[in-house]
Amino acid sequence: MKTLFKLRILQSLWTPTSPSRLFHKDNRRLVSQIVSHYESINRCEQELPEHFNFASDVLDKWSQLEKDGKRPAIAAFWWINDKGDEVRWSFEELGFLTRKAANVLSDPCGLQRGDRVIVILPRIPEWWILNVACIRTGIVFIPGTSQLTAKDIFYRLQASKAKCIITNDTLAPAVDSVLPDCQFLKTKLIVSEGSRDGWLNFQELLKVAPADHNCVKTKSQDPMLVYFTSGSTGPPKMAEHSHSSYGIGFTVSGRYWLNLTPSDIFWNTSDTGWAKSACSSVFSPWSSGSCVFIHNMPQFEPTTIANTLSRYPITTFCTAPTAYCMLVQHGVTSYKFMSLRHCVTGGEPLNPEVMEQWKTQTGLDIYEGYGQTETVTICANVKGMKIKPGSMGKASPPYDVQVVDDQGDILPRGEEGNIAIQIKPTRPFCLFSRYLDNPEKTASTEHGNFYITGDRGIMDEEGYFWFVGRSDDIINSSGYRIGPFEVESALIQHPAVAESAVVSSPDPIRGE
Q1: Locate the AMP-dependent synthetase/ligase domain: which residues (predicted)?
Q2: Looking at residue 298, what is its pLDDT?
Q3: 10, 205, 372, 447: which is deepest, by most CB within 10 A?
């Protein structure tokens, strides 16, 4: 972290320091042409451009608006931790750092457009720098959660054929333990204030990297991002997304579900290894020109969450239903959330009782949304809609969402079936491209004219969707998708275990 603080001083770039300047009510109605343009693509009012790159077409344009005085004087990125450390960057500073990082990836690391890089880092600023740097260079970014074991890392390295892995001191030993069997891996980059044999040091390379970098002209449908997503009958699958699917697809989510403008400071608590982080900690807020706020907490504590919401001018907040449950059980009536105006959730069903208690204790509604690693936001409750507690809301553009039977035929409203997205005659651009190296599994998600989500639900007469359950055995605990196969495979390795089977059990806090 010390390196990043030094870089901020050396840049001599402005960053607001007075909390009183961070929220500008006069700018609440500011809607940029950036947002309007990409929203119109989501609504199928304009064609998808041939070329698109989130770094050059969105972030750099917000940087220019910032320089021209057409964006409120708030940070683009604001990071804190429990030790009192703090980092704040403007879009201009973000551009400066990510161009330097892009040069690190291209030169010392020897990576080229289309190469795959696994990044396993906690909620530290370098994760955001490297994410955008990969986008700038056309390198495919593969996030991983810090909870991965050596076996998990080995599988991901082999399956993805990643040429580089980036991690910290905590997980570097696990990488080294499996390195002899990873024939595709060429470069190891460590985010650390110290050195490690066989690893390039990101901080040291970033200090000396040139700041000039020409963003690669990526096509809209070029691969940008790969997420490993759990399966019920096998190892995790690799869901590939294009530059446009997440980069443009989350524009509507940012403006409507998250209700963001350039005046907002948005805090999402998701772990960096999960797709919810891409949605709510990168693409949705930054497409809206909002500030991404991050509190790097070692573990979830209701008191810490409540204190942070009270102490900082956070206007919009996103966390898992489990977290809201813990917060209302802890009790937040004694806290003053002076700036907070909009709350959202997703990842698992929200108990209506929790929603009601949150409203009683804070005066704020919770707007539930629904999506998958393979999609952007499928449906959501948004401002101006009647909230039906327990409902996931209505379909979000550009998706045509239906409930279908096992043959792919649309069911009457009120009947339970498979939640599905229409993909014919035109496949939505904001749907994943494929499961890498698994054409059979990719094909199995399509029935007739629809992509089948694997979730069961009901659409009522007013077009609201209600979640019933998974059609497979995936376990959803605190918003984390856990494949039984992975747990069973770990158990069976013990010499005392002959066979294993894993099923979920209800939990009043975590769901399963």
Answers
A1: 66-422
A2: 84
A3: 372
